[in-house]
Amino acid sequence: MAWQKQILRVNLTTSNCNIEPLNMEWAESFLGSRGLGSKYLYEEMDPAADALSAENKVIFATGPLTGTMASTGGRYTVVTKGALTGAIACSNSGGKFGGELKNAGYDMLIIEGESDKPVYLHIEDDKVEICDASDIWGKTVWETEDLLAKKYSDPLMRFAGIGQAGETLCRYACVVNDKHRAAGRSGVGAVMGAKKIKTIAVRGTRGVHAKNPKAFYDIVNSVNARMTDRDEMSRDGTLAMIDVTNEFGSLPTRNNRSVRFEGANKLNPEAMHTPNENGHTNIVTNHACYGCTIGCGRICKIDPTHFSVKDRPEYQGASGGLEYETAYALGSACGVDDIDAATFAGFICNEYGMDPISMGGTIAAAMELYDIGVIDENTTGGIKLEFGSAEALCQIAELTGKGEGFGADIALGSKRLCEKYGHPDLSMTVKGQEFAAYDGRSMQGMGLAYATSNRGACHLRADPYEHDFETTDTPGKAKVVAESQRDVAFIDSSGLCLFPGGCGWGMDDYTELVNGACDGNWDSQETGERIWNLEKLFNLKAGLGKKDDTLPKRILEEPADVGTGKGLVCKLDEMLPEYYQLNGWDADGVPTKETLERLKLG
Amino acid sequence: MDISVTLFGGLRHFLPAGSSFNKCSLPLEEGERLDALLAKLPIPAEKAYIVIINDEKVSREDYAEITIQSDDKVVLLPPIKGG
What we know:
The complex is a heterodimer.
Chain A: E1 6-11, E2 16-21, H1 24-30, H2 33-44, E3 58-62, E4 76-81, E5 88-93, H3 97-103, E6 108-112, E7 119-124, E8 127-132, H4 141-152, E9 158-161, H5 164-167, E10 175-177, E11 181-183, H6 188-194, E12 197-203, H7 213-225, H8 231-236, H9 241-248, H10 269-273, E13 283-287, E14 297-300, E15 319-320, H11 324-329, H12 339-352, H13 356-371, H14 377-380, H15 390-402, H16 407-410, H17 414-420, E16 429-430, E17 433-434, H18 444-452, H19 465-470, H20 477-494, H21 507-517, H22 524-541, H23 553-557, H24 572-582, H25 593-598
Parallel strand pairs in A: 1-6, 7-12
Antiparallel strand pairs in A: 1-2, 3-4, 3-6, 4-5, 7-8, 9-10, 9-12, 10-11, 13-14, 14-15, 16-17
Helix pairs in contact in A: 1-2, 2-20, 2-22, 7-21, 12-15, 13-17, 18-20, 20-22, 20-24
Chain B: E1 2-7, E2 23-27, H1 34-38, E3 50-53, E4 56-58, E5 74-77
């Protein structure tokens, strides 16, 4: 079996580190990573506890396929109660950290309690130590990794940690691993900051074993051969989507005032690949995570003459560049069409440890508050926070990373910011989490997916894309969303990435890999539904309910201005009752006793 | 007369030689239908895509019914997933 069958538990209050057997009964029901981490969190903490209190736990959970030879088998999930949302947070990341943690011998790392002084965790197989972090507290993610890499002199050591944004409890602080991959959403980095744990340094040499290595090898090869459509993802990354949504009319622009951005052609793959007037090309190369055969990551450089990096050589090197979500959040959402400025703001998010989707969404909301005169330069510390201002975007991004000036307000997230300034309707959030890069009016299924996502607005909790691009009519969307939420939960729990699903794989391919690596005959729908309902139960106990399964007034009442969905609002009320019914939930969105018993959650 | 057609994402593979990054110019006869215009692009039959004309999504069953004008904005989108 591909589980390591043991977990590492670190209590920061008592400074105890213990290796425990994995609960295999739970593993056989919840698979791993997102699902199994959620099971441990649900069983071990009171969901009503404050996300930033010692009662909360942070779980780094790998899946059974993490660290195997399966393509994209390098994923891990940070499971905790989200500081941004107050809901369950299952924030998934790639890079190489997850594979290394698994190779160190652990399916999961559970961090509990809180330290009274900054610490970091050093893991080399079964050698585990809590170390003083006083000399790296206050450092960026990049500085921290460089300092510890030098200290341990092991080029294969991997790091996952927080920057200053996590230390200052920015509500959407994230956990960054390998310098530019991140467990980005829901504020998982703020929870680490509250516990005063700066980073996890891990090196593993134990290997990961499938139940039948030869048979698994054959399965991996045959499934890989079915990944037939990956060239576009390798060349353009997820950024290819920006042309599609812009033409379709579902690219959120200027805090969702519009669904089309006139500057999208300055942020798209063509712009990334074409030399500018100085002969500078934004993209350097693509990048693959552990075991990945796609390589969707972007490695980019900012034009050294650009105002954001002029005379700042530390930002003139190559690092993680724009992907679709960052091009939206740091581009169209703020009305900014400057690819170098958006790339710089993305660098800042990686360096200080912030979710660029939430930061961009919050800056966009602040720009609208500025635009309608609710805040002014006195509020912003002299920054002209106008839609379209690349200079303002770059300035405010750095202030937010440091938690300084008006950046401290941006660090609140859009919901708290808009409430503070008396305009809660201007926050484009669900459960306090900022929208991803799709508008729920021209993509009705995505609107339902946002509203019902257990971790707040998210484009990676369901897969309504094909149906949404086919029709804006609502019949059938509840079923597509409900069933794809289960599939996604299963994939997230396996240790694999979602993106092969856009490159030729179907659910049968994922299931074949899981069955090949683990004992059992897995049913993705059944397992995914169990996980989805468990997350729902956590949220109900945390105080979230039907009132939170909704969308901002703008999406429900203001029609889309252009595109294929022109004139439409999101018809959530047509879809939500059917969605609840398909899930076996009552009219208030609560799983029925029969549903819980069927899923063995009763 | 000619018409400009835009192909996004992986559909760019099927642009005729000499096209720009994602646009090509195709000859258009008066009264030409959409299906005849699309047939001028070497896109394999099994390749799925979405056609948008002047901000309106066109259903596949209407391809043979729609007459194209030279000033129409014709865009082909691949049905990709998000990230």
